[in-house]
Amino acid sequence: MSAYRLAVILLVTYPLVATAQNTCDNQTFNSHADKIACEIKQTYAKFKDVNKAFDQLMYVNAQFEQITGTASNLFTSRLGENQEQWRSWVKNNCSLEGDVSMGTAGSDIEQQCLQDAADARIKELHHMAELLPH
Predict the structure, then answer these.
(1) DSSP assigned state of 66
(2) CB 47 within 8 A of CB 58
(3) Looking at residue 85, what is its pLDDT?
(4) Which residues contact residue 59 at a Cβ distance below 8 angstroms, ignoring those fewer than 6 apart?
(5) Averaged over 14-32, what is the pLDDT?
(6) Domain boundaries, the chain
(7) CA distance 122 to 34
(8) How many CB atoms lie under 10 A from the CB of residue 114?
(9) Is the model's pLDDT at 65 over the cut of 70?
């Protein structure tokens, strides 16, 4: 295994390990609002990891574009558009998922949906990075 490939694998897996240890479920809160604040903070951290995974994918994509004979901007625009479309969809989808609960649990449901979506997106972005030749 090349040192480059090992570095990519480490960059890809580290954010998953770092966020997996951070949970609001194992804490005691004085109010539902405090728990939601914790969930929002955790969601924000997961979306920072999504950004890191996307940056890693774009780095691998840039390396791919350096391969002789590769068309310039072959995937770059599409990757950016796909990321923006995903962000819009997941925001709307999770908001709707929270709304249809029609209760105080809506905030919890929305945050869990966002966190699950972020975890899935990180895996997708890492998978794309692994697929690109480099």
Answers:
(1) T
(2) no
(3) 98
(4) none
(5) 62
(6) 3-131
(7) 27
(8) 24
(9) yes
- Which of 114, 110, 106, 112 is CA-nearest to residue 87? 114
pLDDT band at residue 71 under the 50/70/90 scheme: confident
The pair of three-digit structure tokens given for residue 85, joined into one six-digit string:
């479309």
CATH 1.10.357.10 fits 3-131, yes or no: no
Cα–Cα nearest to 12, from 133, 123, 131, 132: 123
The pLDDT, as a whole number, for residue 93 is 97
Report DSSP letters for 4-48, one per residue.
HHHHHHHHHHHHHHHHHT--STTS--SSHHHHHHHHHHHHHHHHH
| pLDDT for residue 4 is more than 60 | no
pTM attached to this predicted model: 0.78
